[in-house]
C-alpha cells in the first residue's frame, strides 16, 4: 500500500466537492461587506473551516480504520486528527507568515471540535484539565512528527512515532510482527501525503479545495489480495 508516485491533491475545477465562496452582487453584497463578510479575518475563518472539513472527511470515515486495522476509539480518532492537522499545518507553514496565520485559525477549528468530542465522550467535570492534557499531547506529537521528517532523523523514526502515537496500547517501544506491516503502511501514507500536499498549489490549500488520498480503493485492493 501507498507505493504510487505522489501527486497534487487539488480538486479539479469542475469537481462537485469544491468549496467556493458565494458570489453576491448588488445590495446583498453591500450589506455583507458592511458586516465584514469579505474582511481578511472572515475569509481566513471560512478557509480554515474548509480545510478542517477535509481533515474530518478523512478521519471520520470508516476507510482509514479499515485500511490500518484500527478500532475506532477516542484515542485512535484523536491520533489521526493530530496526524492530519500536522500535515495541513506543515504545508501551510511552507507559505510563510500568511500560511502560519491561517494555521492558527485552523487550530482554533480543531480545538473547538475536539472540545465537543471530549464532551460527547462523557467528560464534563474535568473538561478543562482534559483539554490541557490533550493540548500537551498535540504539541508533543507535532514536535515528534517534525523531527522524524528532518534529513538527520533516524531511520524508521517516523515509523516509531506512529507506532507510539497511534497503534501502541501498552507503551511498548516497538510494534509486534503482526502490527509492523500496518505501521509501515501508515508511515508510507504519511510521507506520501506530505509530498502530495507540497505538490498542491497554494490556492487549493488555502481555500480547502483539495482532498487527502482516497482510501476506499485501498480497502478494496487489500480485500482482493
Strand content: under 5%
Gap between N and C termini, in Å? Answer: 11 Å
Q: Provide the helix percentage.
A: 55-70%
Describe the main β-sheet briefly.
Answer: none
Radius of gyration, in angstroms, nearest whole number: 19 Å
Organism: Olea europaea subsp. europaea
GO biological process, one term: mitochondrial respiratory chain complex III assembly
Domain Ubiquinol-cytochrome c chaperone: 68-211
InterPro entries: Ubiq_cyt_c_chap, Ubiqinol_cyt_c_chaperone_CPB3
What does this structure look like?
There is one protein chain. The protein is mainly alpha-helical. It has one domain. 65% of the residues lie in helices and 0% in strands. The protein is globular and about 65 Å long. It starts with 25 loop residues before the first helix and ends with a helix.
Amino acid at each position: 500500500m501507498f507505493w504510487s508516485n505522489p501527486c497534487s491533491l487539488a480538486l479539479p475545477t469542475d469537481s462537485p466537492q469544491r468549496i467556493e465562496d458565494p458570489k453576491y452582487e448588488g445590495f446583498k453584497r453591500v450589506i455583507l461587506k458592511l458586516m465584514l463578510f469579505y474582511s481578511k479575518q472572515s475569509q481566513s475563518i471560512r478557509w480554515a473551516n474548509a480545510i478542517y472539513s477535509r481533515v474530518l472527511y478523512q478521519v471520520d470515515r470508516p476507510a482509514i480504520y479499515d485500511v490500518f486495522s484500527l478500532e475506532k476509539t477516542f484515542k485512535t480518532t484523536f491520533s489521526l486528527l493530530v496526524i492530519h492537522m500536522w500535515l495541513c499545518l506543515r504545508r501551510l507553514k511552507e507559505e510563510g507568515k500568511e500560511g502560519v496565520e491561517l494555521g492558527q485559525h485552523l487550530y482554533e477549528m480543531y480545538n473547538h471540535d475536539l472540545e465537543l468530542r471530549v464532551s460527547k465522550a462523557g467528560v464534563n467535570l474535568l473538561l478543562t484539565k482534559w483539554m490541557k492534557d490533550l493540548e500537551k499531547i498535540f504539541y508533543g506529537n507535532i514536535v515528534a512528527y517534525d523531527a522524524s521528517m528532518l534529513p538527520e532523523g533516524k531511520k524508521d523514526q517516523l515509523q516509531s512515532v506512529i507506532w507510539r502515537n497511534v497503534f501502541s496500547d501498552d507503551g511498548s517501544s516497538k510494534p509486534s510482527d503482526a502490527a509492523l506491516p500496518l505501521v509501515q503502511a501508515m508511515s508510507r501514507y504519511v510521507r506520501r501525503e506530505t509530498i502530495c500536499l507540497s505538490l498542491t498549489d497554494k490556492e487549493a490549500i488555502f481555500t480547502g479545495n483539495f482532498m487527502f488520498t482516497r482510501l476506499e480503493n485501498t480497502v478494496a485492493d487489500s480485500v482482493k489480495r
